Model the fold of this input.
Amino acid sequence: MSDLDAFIAGLPKAELHVHHVGSASPRIVAELAARHPDSAVPTDPEALADYFTFRDFAHFVEVYLSVVDLIRDAEDVRLLTYEVARDMARQQIRYAELTVTPFSSTRRGIPDVAFVEAIEDARKAAESELGVFLRWCFDIPGEAGLAAAAETARIACDLRPEGLVSFGLGGPEIGVPRPQFKPYFDRAIAAGLHSVPHAGETTGPGTIWDALDDLRAERIGHGTSAPQDPKLLAHLAEHRIPLEVCPTSNIATRAVRTLEEHPVRAMFDAGVLVTINSDDPPMFGTDLNTEYRIAARLLDLDAQGVATLAKNAVEASFMDAPAKSRLTAEIDTYTATHTHTATQPPA
Ligand SMILES: [Zn+2]
Done:
């Protein structure tokens, strides 16, 4: 492991764009599959590792749906959530805004109250036992249409779990225009939630403008096409509207052809607040530390530069001010210690 890789592995981090079901690692899936022996998912760790080896986007969808099929009751939800936090703790992730899609579970018959209780129980346990602070973004699965939007807004606003901070919109963008979701975002924003839709991942900058104008986005999920519109890039930089960049995911979904062509450099150079995230890490064969290593390479960053990326995520998060100060101070202390040690003359 290079010095920079070791620095990244130990760096305290926050993650802002990572999906609940999409974070189920082979280890977690094996535990869920063991609870439901009738499922098609292998329980043997070796077979499971092969099952999970990322091949292409169609394979990702297949794996994703088979994991969705394993989440059948509130205990599955609790187990998944807590174990995701355990995987985060290993990567020194201190805080994560986890994108959760309650509609996928309520549609399958898990009562909304039981679903919310399960994630909240896991959140409290992760905080006290693992030192990982989870917060929720409830997102609309865009492909499921306005009924899903109404149900997501209802659960978010009526049940309003303590850990819920934001309201999102995911799923395919092509053929799913953003403005139709405005009434549901209006309701969530009126209830005090932050607006964080996916936009401009597989469509042009017009979708990002729609997310800003109609959904009042405070952060943009992906925003990959933003650099195609210099006026938009300048607007994002001027108003400090962060982008949640997920490099490996963009390659996996073919939103970007190669990492070398990834627009993160253009975003960064334009002064946009760039955050680095993993999206659906095990399903794309990555994790947050890998994404930081990729970002360091694409942006030509040293340890100080990588620490700045980590602090961008803290700034762009919906933590309260004291929590932001604490995590920023932890990052600074770690960075000072590490870079100090690295420049010490040999004893
Ligand atoms: Zn996403």
Notes: The mean pLDDT is 94. Residues 321-343 form the longest helix (23 residues). Residues 17, 19, 170, 198, 221, 279 surround zinc ion (CB under 6 Å).
